[in-house]
Every structure is written in structure tokens, then in C-alpha cells.
Amino acid sequence: HFTALFNEELKKEQVIRYYTVIRDGIESTTLWNESIVILPQAGINIESLEINEFSFDFALEAANTAAADYPEANANYTSCNYTSGRNHNIDTWVNHWIGTGTYLGAISWFHNCSAQASAHFVIRASDGEITQVVRTQDTAWHAGAFDYNNRSIGVEHEATLANPELWNSVPMLQASANMARYFANLYSIPSNRGVPGIVGHNEIPGTSTQCPGNLPWDQWMSFFAGMPIVYEFWRKADPLYADPNSDIWNPNFDAQYKVVNNGNEDIYIDSLALSVHDADDNHLFDLSDSDTGQARYYDNLVLTSGETHHFVFSVGYIQEPGTYKLVAKAQIDGDWHHLASQDFVMLEALDNEICNDGIDNDGDSYIDCDDFDCTNNSACPVMTDLTSGQQVSGSVSQDNWKQYKITASSSDTELQVDLTNLSADVDLYVRKDSSPTETVYDCRPYKGGTSSESCTLTNSGATEWYISVYGYQT
Fold first, then answer.
1. Distance CA 369, CA 265 (A)
2. Contact between 66 and 75 (Cβ < 8 Å)
3. Residue-level pLDDT at 193
4. What pLDDT shows up at residue 79?
5. Please, what is the angle between helix 170-187 and helix 217-225, to 10°?
6. What is the pLDDT, as a whole number, of residue 5?
7. Is 321 exposed, middle or buried (0-12, 13-18, 19+ CB in 10 A)?
8. How would DSSP label each residue in 333-346?
9. What angle do CA 186, 223, 103 make, to 5 degrees?
């Protein structure tokens, strides 16, 4: 029974949604960082379902069949909870989350005349489906302040306090930003963040609300502006420690990212960069090429529709503890735009090294087992020296490491390491100048089972290479 939904069509569509999730499965994370996993269930034929002992057509019939104001939206207009007409030009776009419940529940609630609330549009997380509830020519009751309702378009997104990860839905963000761009062009809504312009509900003066929660504004604004979209974004794993002795040749921070053009038109990029900002979003430095020590940029790029670009592994150094922001950015038509960002914390260096986390914890430029603090530590197995062309055999128990080191001369241009004749699932890791860890390495082939693994790396100058074999499953 779905008594909270206002009509039979919405109840039936909610049933379909539940059975679709059961059939296809789902993974999500709650506000409390709990993982929710529903495994797919075979044998569910949604098309043959019978509800309340009768079959029904799966197409949702709108209560009001008038066309939607946005071509990509369904129309399901409410007869209440809004004011006819406006006394102000439309100049503001307001993003909301539903906070609790579901996409269909929000639509139903706006049809409940005792709700005293509405929005112009509601967007579904799973696929970006849009339903219009109030005409844009009319004033929806969404912002908690009539003067701002009167000048704005309000849009509810299917993200909730208990499941904020729903904001990670690219289809929902893309659909929302595309619609915002459509109406911004139609009504000349400014593209800046603010009133007039684009805001979240919690940015409306005089309101006190968490809405829209953790909406990823950088990504949303990138979609809105037709920017390249960051779809993978890595940085050095936590915990991170400030190092007063670090410099560009002894960096303590690294990151990389990938972008894609999800639009239909070519994107012309003056420059791509990867920067570290302070907690107040002031630019500090751009990450650098680890080989040259020079800031890394990709200039004069053209991304065609569907094309990707990889901003490769780049480094920097941070000497002072504190809160920082990592920013992927693009310069287009002379202006810099934030594509995505991550906040991170640099901790004060410890007195002693932690011997198995791949981090210079005590700020002396020596990491893990290379640090004097880790002498005779159980986390640091015996290091076996190798020579060029040498073959070794051995075994390693599950969850343990075998460590090797080879010194390449200045005349060696390439290092090749082959792991063969495997009888169990063991993994190869190679790293220059210090021992690799599970998260920090220069080569990690990622083969499964007993497949052979190989690393081929370019060598420049006299270099120490560290080779580790990890017993993943033996």
C-alpha cells in the first residue's frame, strides 16, 4: 500500500521502481557511511506484474495533460500550493534536495493541498527523469520567502539527508544543469552564483535550512557551463602529513584526474591545471611534473564530443599543517573555471615514522622502511638485492610481502620486471627510490589469479628501483 501517494498512477509507478531496484540491484552509502548493497534478483519480469489483482499500463498518465514548459520534462501539474502569475521577472534558479522520501513522493506531496509547498520541477536520481509540477509562469512555494519565490524557478532533486550519495548521480546532475541552461537562456538568468543567478535553497537570505545538502556545485556548474566533466579524480591517500623539509624534488603530495566532453559540441580549452588552494580558496600553487619540477599544464586542447583527457600524475609539496583544497580547473576563453575540488587536511608531522603507510610521517624525507625509525620493525621484511638479468624464485604467504631492490646505472634506459610461473594470486609492485605500498607505486599491473604480471618503466640516471611481491591470495 502506498497511501502517501496521491493517485493510482503514482502508486503503480512507485511499485515498478521498487521491483526494478530488486531486479537490477543497487549499491549506496548512507549519511553514516554505511554501505547498502542489494544484489540483483533474477526472474523478475516487471512487464508481467499484476498489482491489486489486475494488470496495468506502465505509462504514467499525467493528471494534467498540458505540455511541460521544458521539452524534456513530463507534465503533472498540481491544482494547489502555488500562486498564479508573478510580480517579478524570473532571474534566479534555486536548487533543492527533497531531503526525505522519493521522487514520486515529492510529486505526490506537492499535489497534497495541505502541504503548502511546491517546486516547479522534480528530478529523479536514477536516470534524470524530470516532472514539472508548477508552470514557470506561476510562483511555486519552494524558497520559504515569497519575494524570492516570485523571481525564481525552484527544482527538487532526489537526494536525501539519509542518502546524500544520491547527489553522485551524473544523469540527475546533467539533466538539472541542462534544464537550468535552457531557462537561463530563455529568461536571461545570470550564470553566476548568487541572487540574481544560481543558488541553493540555503543561500536564500532569511532562510535556515540544510537544503540542498552536499550538492556537488563544481560538477553541477561544469555541466551548466558546458565544461569538460571530471569523471575520475585521485589524490594521495589519507593520512597526509606536512613536511617542513619537503620540496619539489621531495614532494609529499600528488594527484591526477580525467575529464570528458559529455556535450554534443567541441570544447576549446586554453589550459588545464591542477592546483592547491588554501581553506579560503586562495590559489597557492599548481602541481608539477615530477621529472622536470615545472608546473604542469595542458594548453590549447580541443575535446570533441565523447573525448577524454588524462591530467597525469603530478606532484607538489606542503610544509605547513592545515586544511587545503585540491582544484581541477580549466581556462576557457581567458577565464578560469573550477571543474571539481576536494578538501583535504595536512597533519602535523609525527615524532616517529609509521612503517607501512607509504607516507613520510616524521618529515625527514625518508618513507616507511627507508626510515631509521623502522630498523628491525616487523613491517619491514628483509630486502634482497638483485642484479640485471637475475632470476629468483620463492614464495610469499597471504597478506605478506617479499621485497627486492635493484640499482640501475645511468646507461640503463629501461627497467623490465616479470613475475611468472605463479601458483597463487600474488601481485607485483614497483616503485622508484623507495618501497611501494598497496596505494603508492609506479607500476601495478592489476592481473588476477595466476596470470603473469610485468612492469616496464623508463629509467633516467642512476636509480634505485624497489620491487615488491604481495601475497594477495595463496
1. 51
2. yes
3. 92
4. 93
5. 50
6. 55
7. middle
8. TTEEEEEEEEEEEE
9. 85
Query: To 10 degrees, what angle do helices 103-111 and 8-24 make?
Result: 170
The pLDDT score that the predictor gives to residue 47 is 60
Q: 92 is written with which cell numbers? A: 534566479
Q: What are phi and psi of 147, to 5 degrees?
A: -60, -35
First to last CA, the chain: 51
**Residue the block writes with cell 589519507:** 238
Identify the segments of the chain with pLDDT beneath 70.
1-19, 26, 28-36, 45-65, 363, 365, 375-376, 378, 381, 474
Kindly give the pairing relationship between strand 253-260 and strand 229-235: antiparallel
C-alpha cell at 41: 534478483
Q: Quick one: pLDDT at residue 29?
A: 61
Q: Are 140 and 118 within 8 A, CB to CB?
A: yes
Segment (H or E) for 224: helix 217-225
Report which secondary-structure segment, H or E, holds 281. Answer: none
The set of residues, in sequence order, having a beta carbon less than 8 Å from that of 96 and lying 6+ positions away, is 119, 142, 154, 155, 156, 157, 200, 201, 211, 212
Cα 321 from Cα 312, distance rounded (Å): 26
The set of cell numbers assigned to 185 is 537562456
- How far, in Å, CA of 151 to CA of 204, rounded? 12
Full DSSP string of 1-15: --TTSSSHHHHHHHH
How far is 373 from 353, CA to CA, in rounded Å?
6
All cell numbers assigned to 125: 536520481
d(CA 125, CA 127): 6
CA 429/CA 142 separation, integer angstroms: 54
DSSP assignment of 216-262, as one string? -HHHHHHHHHT--EEEEEEEPPSPEE--TT-BTTB-SEEEEEEEE--
Tell me how far CA of residue 373 lies from CA of 214, 366, 370, 407, in angstroms: 41, 10, 9, 23
